[in-house]
Amino acid sequence: MTTVRARLSVPSSAATSRRALIVGGAVVAAVLFIVFRGQWTLPHDDDYGLFRTLNGIRDAVESNRSVLEPIRAGVAGLVGIFDQVLASLGWPGVIGAAAAIGLIFGGWRVALLAAVGFGILGSLGLWESSMAVLSMMLAAVLIALGIGLPLGIAAGRSQRLASALSPVLDFMQIMPTLAYLTPITLLFLIGVAPSVIATLIFAVPAAIRITALGIRGVPATIIEAARSLGATERQVLVKVLLPLSRRPVGLAINQTIMLALSMVVITSLIGAPGLGRNLQNALSKVDVGASFDAGLAIVILAIILDRLTYAAGEWADPRERAARSGPRWVTIGVALALVGIGLAIPLVADATTFPDTFAASFREPVNVAVEWFTDTFHAVTIGLKDVVTNLVLNPLESVLVTAPWWLVVAALTTVAWYVSGGRAAIIVSFCFAFIIGLGLWEHSMVTLANVVIGTLITLGIGLIVGILSARHDRFRAFLRPILDAAQTLPAFVYLIPALALFNPTRFTAIVAAVIYALPPVIRLVDVGIRGVSGTVIEAATASGATGRQVLWKVQLPMSRHALLLAANQGIVMVLSMVVIGALVGAGALGYDVITGFAQGKDFGKGLAAGIAIVLLGILLDRITQAAGARRQAGMETAG
Amino acid sequence: MTVAGGPVVPAAATSDGAATGGAAGASAAVTAAAVASAAGSPAIAVRDLWKIFGPAENKIIGTPDAELSASDVRLKTGSTVAVRAATFDVQPGEVFVVMGLSGSGKSTLVRCLTRLIEPTQGQVLLDGEDILKADAKRLRELRRRRFAMVFQHFGLLPHRRVIDNVAFGLEIRGEGKAERHRRAIEMLDLVGLDSHAWDYPDQLSGGMQQRVGLARALAVDPEVMLFDEPFSALDPLIRRDMQNEVLRLHHEVGKTMVFITHDLAEALKLGDHVAIMRAGSIVQIGRPEEIVGSPADDYVRDFVQDVPRSHVLTLRWVMREPRDDDPVDGPELPPDTVIRAAVHVASATESPIRVVEDGRLVGVVDRVQILAAIAGTEPDA
Amino acid sequence: MRHSTFGRGLALSLVALVLVAGCAQSSGSTAKPAESEGAGATAEASAGAGGGAEAATCQGSGDKGTVQLMINQWVGAEANVAVAACLLKQMGYDVKTNTLAEEVAWQGFSTGEVDVILENWGHPDLEQKYITDEKLAVDAGPMGVTGIIGWYVPGWMVEKYPDITDWNNLNKYADLFKTSESGDKGQFLGADPTFVQYDEALIANLGLDYKVVFSGSEAASITAFQQAEKNQTPLIGYFYDPQWLQNEIKLVQVKLPAWTEGCDADLKKVACDYPPYVLNKIVRAAWMDQGGDAVDFIKKFSWANSDQNEVADYITNGNMTAEEAAKKWIDAHPDTWKAWMPQG
Ligand SMILES: Nc1ncnc2c1ncn2[C@@H]1O[C@H](COP(=O)(O)OP(=O)(O)OP(=O)(O)O)[C@@H](O)[C@H]1O
Ligand SMILES: [Mg+2]
Q1: Which residue has the higher pLDDT, B28 or A118?
Q2: Is C170 within a domain?
Q3: Which of A156, B58, B97, B121 is deepest in the core (most CB within 10 A)?
Q4: Nearest alpha-carbon partner for B212 in B226, B229, B197, B224
Q5: Is A507 in CB contact (< 8 Å) with chain C?
Q6: In this structure, is the dihedral angle defined by the CA atoms of residues A374, A377, A383 and A387, taken in order, positive or negative?
Q7: Which residue does chain B place closest to A244, by CA atoms?
Q8: Spacing, Cα B369 to ligand 2 middle (Å)
Q9: What rounded mean pLDDT belongs to chain B?
Q10: Are C165 and C238 part of one and the same domain?
Q11: What interface predicted TM-score (ipTM) does this complex get?
Q12: Cβ contact A224–B116 (<8 Å)
């Protein structure tokens, strides 16, 4: 007993001295802030020298762009091939082929899902747009996997390559999607080819990471056993590593497809055809209903592709295949028949465009519903916006902007050092140095304030909903399709209602970011709380704890790691909406990025803003990531 | 004979090599041959083998640091001396057991034999050929035909059926499907799993899976089989089964075996010779009863103190010099009779047992000594 | 993050939903043909007046080559393109359209992906680069519409504060426009970043007590003005004409110091209103050199603000596709477009 108490007393005294340190630091910072407020600020200047230098780079690249022409032509050619295949199949052929693929891989349910899904795309009047998206996505996925799988395998086998790649992949994943459209158009101009390239850049990190993870997950004993039998490296790869990482590689392909799909839609901004363009047209007419149709088409495409790849992954397992009932030739026969019917229809009827007979649209009802909703709740939501903005957002932003820059840097570096140690502090101060060097201090501080508030709201809601979802299976089942849809639905769809509810303001951007970042946060919280081992909960219940006590004293503390991971994910995702947020009034860095993209004279500023966003991301990521790791380590040594 | 101190052998080798004379290339071969003859043609001869993990891998041997204890080396250099100057011979057809506590370097040692872990320094001679000098191709050839290994966690391929797991080594070396399936079935028959050929590994119990691992190793018909704690993941009853299985196979196929374990009973049961490792060093090598009968140091003594001595020690270890007044009507037994086996003989007669070797009386054992051995106390005490 | 049985439930509920919607729609779609018949009837009537012309089909052989028309991201531009595309198709051309941001669209001249920009809002820097320096593009003359950029307030405010339309009085009303975004100043809603604008300089140089808050996109600006009119909330901001919203709600322009030649030469010192933009057509030089009916047609293409607003209104508020709207306009205004067609 005494030893336990003695051991406990050590950290608690350390904790009090730490607390004193924090309080002292905060007091000092506050005093400095009051004294120096408004001095040593770094106000924004649109004519910063670096921006013009970057403009110069742009001109240099423009005059040498022809070097990249073969890449451009090659990618466009690849898309052309897919275009032609899909066009020559016609809508009956595509539906037949999708059903056949579904049948072979997954059975009649998947076949039906695929056929009905494609049918809906047609009846929404979005057949051509969907096919355009499909062929660009296929091209991007093909290239992304061509690069990502070999790199992933190599990174899975070589720790050195993995650590060399890691920061590059971090950069690619934190960089907001819209931010690299600017350099892409600089290199590859506009159209299908740059869109595919942007898409594959967006999707390839996941392919590499998941593949590497899968390869690394192959048990060392099995590899060793193969080596001990004299296997060559090639044999180890082909006979052991690849078959054993079949599942993660399948997941990598699946995720690559999903990410590519979401990006292809955004690339309509640089001239890609397809559903993204429908969305944009709807947006410029403030037609929520039309954008809902297009968004729905994207969700449906995502579901079909997800189910097909999932089924294909299962099918690739020979044991799974062997366990299927029914003779194989029947399945293949039916599949061939389906394709045959699809191809035969154009012979007897006109199949160039999808028939109007099945036309369906949600446009009207959605528009009516949204109008009713915004009219009814407008006053409440504007009030909410004003309260949050005036009480939280404005004060925070004003502190960050009016404080001397060195005070902000010192304070946040200290926080990083305190929470995550010296390494994190160094990285954080480097990020700040670069941001100052980029000449975007003020805009970065405004964006930082937005991101912080957005993350806090996301975590608040995510925690509550996640806890509810972890405690009630029914609620979880109800929530799941909503989260799935929210994750696949392009943000463009809910921007207009958000605008009508909150006007073009920073808060609107925060709302959009919260909607985007919530699903993964809710899921992580749910998984974390559910992951707490049953015996611990049993022990707590046995000692008379109420459900509430179990939650607060057992489940939440024990899932702390998952919760911190959720916070980290939340930050990264909120940040990735910074640019989209600028479309609805967030201003600051996101607005700079869009301007740079739209106005030649602001190219340099836009590029710098894109980099500044990444720096903010790294900075926030490092602080929270290290916090998670440290607490986790602490818990392990304590336990 | 087991060699406890290495330096003797290289000395013999050099003298022999010098006598023959010849080019540098030829002298290597001669040296190897000389070693083989000097050590009574061991299947495997290990000479001054080191393995150090960590940043200072190549900066320790030959410096004063090499004399430090493993934990001091780790503190000072951040590197781990996993195997330190190991030297031993494995005779053809014997079961050579390496045992020691967890982390003592057993797995590292056995992997160094086929360079699954690249040794830092030393020699591993297989029939006189230095494996450490083999190029990648030759090494693969050796692994494909002359060694086979059985692993603690089996290392089976979950996506292949049992038969294809057993045939994996043959597939690796490029044999045709019919031939390798024929051979695999044969091996499965040998380990009693022929009815499970078309199952997947996860449909088998742990013991059965390790039989598959065993069959896979046997399938390539190796000269030397290496076992790294093959049974420690199995429960005790299965384990005894498997030990008997290995003994049976050893009888039937007569392979040379190097067997790693941390279980002394297993070591004593299976081993013709046992090497005891501690913190990377081999502290004693000997026949099982030598280990139990005269532990080299406190570490080994600690190990063997709970061993029922009567099960391991032979009469040679407890007999006393014959005296003139000894009765001559006692029963006669050879000196390598295990004490336990002598108990019922001793209880059937009043007279002490006469230990006879080659028709010559070499010692006498009476009940006092037998009882003392069973009780675990020194007979003289 | 991803679940293996992703959206199975979602999929099923979607299928159900769509079936329901399909049924609902099929009753609606019976109304549709009737509507287009109505359009056909007016077309016939006007065709009769025009002298034997047939109703527009927007279809043709498509064998005279392809014309790539660029669509700006606003509906007026969609209206231009819809009408031009319909007529070009009837002339036997295949038409490809591409919706792009302005700056990006000019790049299309160097990739060959854009042949025609029908509505260019004076980009001197781009004209310098693509027309003068690189000779990739050519000015094909005015397209008839005059673009007006300016500061606008919703109609209800003018009724309540009649003198608000003079910039001299704006400081008096600054308090009215305060929002959570603008602090203690009045909020001025800035535009989509892709548009020509210098409101921050204007406000500073005119000594106005306002802060520019950027809407970030045209959709955001439109929504803001719609809400301001509907909820009678104060709003002042950057807007323009032609724009379909001008037909939907009443927006009144605020009078700024009048534009004179050269008053906007230095954008940092600018203190006058935006110039009227004589919108022009820009075409790709290589395409122009090819010659042919399509080139002649584009050169002659010219219509009025009211024409464009009519078509844009059909598209936005008349629940028509761009092509339907174009057909309706073509049927009703044969005199306008016949002048664009090749002679003989
Ligand atoms: N790849 C490696 N890198 C660094 N150190 C290693 C590595 N492999 C083993 N070691 C270290 O070498 C020492 C010997 O390890 P080894 O696995 O050979 O022990 P062992 O006797 O087989 O133990 P066990 O009975 O637990 O299997 C240990 O201290 C271990 O930490
Ligand atoms: Mg081991």
Answers
A1: A118
A2: yes
A3: B97
A4: B197
A5: yes
A6: negative
A7: B159
A8: 39
A9: 82
A10: yes
A11: 0.78
A12: yes
Q: Is B367 exposed, middle or buried (0-12, 13-18, 19+ CB in 10 A)?
A: middle
- Which domain range does residue C219 map to? 148-254
pLDDT tens digits along B69-82: 878 888 888 888 99
Over residues A569-581, the pLDDT tens digits come to 788 888 888 778 8
Quick one: tokens of B87?
Answer: 């030297």
Query: What CATH number is associated with residue C222?
Result: 3.40.190.100
Q: Which residues of chain C have pLDDT under 50?
A: 1-52
**3-state class (DSSP) for residue A352:** coil
C-alpha distance from residue B298 to each of B241, B260, B283, B292, B295 (Å) = 32, 21, 10, 12, 7
Non-local CB neighbours of A498 within 8 Å, separated by 6+ positions: A508, A511, A512, A584
For chain B, strand residue ranges (E) read: 44-53, 80-90, 95-100, 121-126, 129-130, 147-150, 224-228, 256-261, 273-278, 281-286, 332-333, 353-357, 360-365
pLDDT band at residue A16 under the 50/70/90 scheme: low
Nearest to B36 by CA among B124, B128, B130, B122: B128
Length of chain B: 381
Q: Which run of H or E residues covers position A521?
A: helix A506-530
Residue closest via CA to ligand 1's atom 31 equals B103
pTM for the model: 0.77
Q: Which phi and psi angles does C93 have, rounded to 5°?
A: -100, 155
Whose Cα sits closest to atom 27 in ligand 1? B102
A139: confidence class by pLDDT, cuts 50, 70, 90: very high
How many degrees, rounded to 5, is the angle at CA C233 between CA C231 and CA C236?
130
Token digits of residue A121: 């795309």
| CA within 13 Å, CB half, A351 | 19
Burial class (CB in 10 A: 0-12, 13-18, 19+), B281: middle
Contact in structure between A577 and A491 (CB atoms under 8 Å)? yes
Same domain, C237 and C154: yes
State the total domains in chain C. 2
What is the pLDDT, as a whole number, of residue B169?
92
Q: Nearest ligand to the C-alpha of residue B82?
A: 1
DSSP state of B320: B
Contact B/C (≥3 CB pairs under 8 Å) = no
- Asked if residue C264 belongs to a domain, the reply is no
Q: Is C15 part of a structural domain of the chain?
A: no
Q: What structural domains and CATH numbers belong to chain A? A: 34-67+377-639 (1.10.3720.10), 85-216+246-357 (1.10.3720.10)
Question: Do C211 and C241 share a domain, yes or no?
Answer: yes
Please tell me the least confidently modeled range out of A193-202, B211-220, B349-358, C94-103.
Answer: C94-103
Secondary structure letter of residue A357 according to DSSP: G
Q: Which two tokens mark A151?
A: 């790199």
For helices A246-266 and A192-216, give the axis angle rounded to 10 degrees.
160
Calculate the CA A171 to chain-centre distance. Answer: 13
Optimal mutation site among B126, B146, B168, interface A, most CBs of chain A within 10 A: B168
Residues of B near A (Cβ–Cβ under 8 Å) read 111, 114, 116, 140-145, 147-149, 151-159, 168-169, 171-173, 200, 213, 216, 220, 226
pLDDT value of position B88: 94
Pairing of strands B353-357, B332-333: parallel
Tell me the two tokens of residue A249. 């590689």
> Which residues touch B190 (CB under 8 Å, ≥6 apart)?
B215, B218, B249, B252
Testing the interface with A: which of C103, C128, C267 to mutate, by most A Cβ within 10 A? C103
Torsion A31-A34-A38-A44 (CA) sign: positive
Q: CA of A400: how far to CAs of A46, B206, C187, C214, in Å?
A: 20, 62, 22, 20
Which-ligand-closest: CA of B102? 1
